[in-house]
Design brief:
binds NADP nicotinamide-adenine-dinucleotide phosphate, two-stranded parallel sheet, about 15% strand, alpha/beta, six-stranded parallel beta sheet
Length: about 290
């Protein structure tokens, strides 16, 4: 346990980001509670209040989310329930119990029409239901917990787990000598381990409010896949195609690159590039087999 004895409570610990928070904080000797979803369903507000009142964590790190961007178009109620209504209720409970809330939002709150990096001052304009639900959630946190919260907008998150883009690429290359990947969707891949590091540094520095948290730089999905395949020493051919080649239910912003300058300046250090992050991911991926 750390010298302060601060307790960290992780919601959504079965997900890729929540799993890394639970693993890394425990490895650092911090006091962590990371219940399974059936023990801490964030939509069950009565149980959430009772569990948090009993556990009395100093910090609640909410990694739980309805994260299926395409399915959200036909399941808007479910997306808004988890990403907005439950988050508002979590924020109210944290306010009542004096718990600091860390919450994660998404670059998909933007419509992708800006011709430069998005900053925290740019007006959000979501294109899809998932983005709209995430925007409502971050607004609820700001409304209920102005000085007792941190909201980080993330983009293209990758880490342990089966659902992120790189693990999908690794499945595609296992079955195909040639793969096609969109070259006209651009963002900043963001590694879960860096999200954990930057979150913990932000808490230690006493930061509050809204920040864009991404690895530095930007790329297309095509460049991201190619870089990964190259680092995996595979010879799969990657062909750049238009995103419109693939039919998806949700519209996605063509350009969702956010500037991480505000966070980098506040922490007084550069944030690793996405290429550096992919290399660390590949090492971990190969070690895990
Ligand atoms: N993944 C990305 O590319 C991306 C990009 C930008 C922002 N973000 C944000 O980053 C955060 C972490 O995302 P992630 O990639 O780690 O997502 P993830 O792997 O999908 O993890 C989310 C977890 O929350 C769980 N969950 C869903 N509903 C819940 C509920 N009612 N109560 C408790 N847990 C619930 C999910 O369980 P089930 O799997 O059983 O539903 C899943 O284990 C989220 O806020 C997400 O919106 C992600």
């Amino acid at each position: 346990m750390d010298s302060t004895g601060k307790k960290y409570f992780i919601a959504g610990s079965a997900g890729q980001l929540g799993g890394d928070f639970a693993r890394i904080l425990a490895a650092r000797g911090l006091a962590v509670v990371a219940p399974a979803e059936d023990e801490f369903d964030i939509t069950d507000s009565a149980r959430v209040s009772a569990v948090l009142a009993a556990e009395k964590p100093a910090v609640l790190i909410n990694c739980a989310a309805y994260n299926q961007v395409d399915e959200a178009e036909s399941q808007a109620d479910a997306a808004f329930l988890v990403n907005a209504t439950a988050v508002a209720s979590l924020a109210e409970t944290c306010r009542d119990l004096g718990i600091f809330l860390v919450h994660f939002s998404s670059a998909y709150v933007f419509d992708g029409t800006k011709d430069n990096f998005y900053t925290e001052d740019d007006p959000p304009q979501p294109l899809n239901t998932y983005g709209a639900s995430k925007l409502q959630g971050e607004q609820a946190v700001a409304q209920h917990l102005e000085q007792m919260s941190l909201v980080f907008r993330l983009s293209w998150v990758f880490g342990p787990g089966k659902q992120n883009f790189l693990t999908k690429v690794s499945r595609w290359v296992a079955d195909n000598a040639v793969i096609r990947v969109s070259a006209d969707e651009t963002s900043a891949p963001t590694f879960t381990e860096d999200v954990v590091d930057l979150t913990m540094e932000s808490l230690a520095k006493g930061l509050t409010g809204l920040y864009h948290l991404t690895n530095s730089g930007y790329c297309s999905r095509y460049e991201w896949a190619k870089y990964f395949i190259n680092k995996m020493e595979l010879d799969t051919l990657v062909i750049p195609v238009a995103a419109a080649t693939f039919t998806t239910k949700a519209k996605r912003p063509a350009f969702s690159c956010m500037s991480n300058r505000k966070l980098s300046d506040a922490l007084g250090r550069p944030i690793p590039s996405w290429e550096d992050a992919v290399e660390r991911f590949v090492l971990a991926f190969e070690t895990a087999g």
